[in-house]
Amino acid sequence: MRKxxxxxxxxxxxxxxxxxxxxxxxxxVSKQQSAVKSAPKQAKxxxxxxxxxxxxxxxxxxxxxxxxxxxxxxxxxxxNMLEDFTPxxxxxxxxxxxxxxxxxVDKARLDGSFPxxxxxxxxxxxxxxxxxxxxxxxxxxxALRIKEEGKRSLIxxxxxxxxxxxxxxxxxxxxxxxITGMVVQKKHTPPLQGIVGKTACGGLDPLMIAHETxxxxxxxxxxxxxxxVIGLDERGxxxxxxxxxxxxxxxxxxxxxxxxxxxxxxxxxxxxxxPTGGAxxxxxxxxxxAICLYGLxxxxxx
Length: 302
Description:
Layout: H1 8-11, H2 31-35, E1 41-42, E2 55-56, H3 58-65, E3 72-77, H4 79-94, E4 102-104, H5 107-111, E5 123-127, H6 135-149, E6 153-159, H7 164-176, E7 181-185, H8 195-200, E8 209-212, H9 215-224, E9 228-232, E10 238-239, E11 248-254, H10 262-267, E12 270-273, H11 285-298
Parallel strand pairs: 1-4, 3-4, 6-7, 6-11, 7-8, 9-11, 9-12, 10-12
Antiparallel strand pairs: 2-5, 3-5
Helix pairs in contact: 7-11
């Protein structure tokens, strides 16, 4: 096994003489550490970089940590963040969730484990991706929602939306408005982790997201179950505020610029538009999603 090399950066002071900077985080046990069932240990690794970190940020990590369907293999956390995260460690223990011991690291080490400028907030996970749902799972969930809660079933579909920041922001809105779920494409969607999870701000784990290959076929399956399918287009024949939202509704958003593909648009029952105008005739896709989700979920039943 190759040993780590000590560098001047690690030990050199102003005088150039070797001088330790001070105790490592693992040598300074705090009250927060003792509150954890097993005190976090300093990681022993070959290099400063931590590989294969898949989720980061307080909200994303918290929801994943408390999600029983998540398989988590490692939690890396700074001393400062441990104080805020300790209640969630206790909550997972109380729920009987199998979770690894937290590993204390300093902020600089996490900085070096991500691309420059990543806002990790001093906390990161190594975890498996969430189980993939399919459209039949969403339809079953929608039927229960209508029968037991008396609410509409609204499913959001993304047609070749590929930017991770946009997808994360849309997931956050979809989770906030508590829709039935989302449909994304297997081929064009980035992994639902990393920047997607951070931008979703805790909305990723609570939301059912189905991965489908052929959206046209998926739309037909939804129609067979009584779903009315609408697409957003600036040339739509009816504005959002005029649209009579049905009990079962699929709402489709296309990529910025190209919008909905021809086959997807032809599969829609109706196209709607937002009442935008002036110098700016359109909105960012994630902003448009948030506005439409609000309108569709709060519209009175007629």
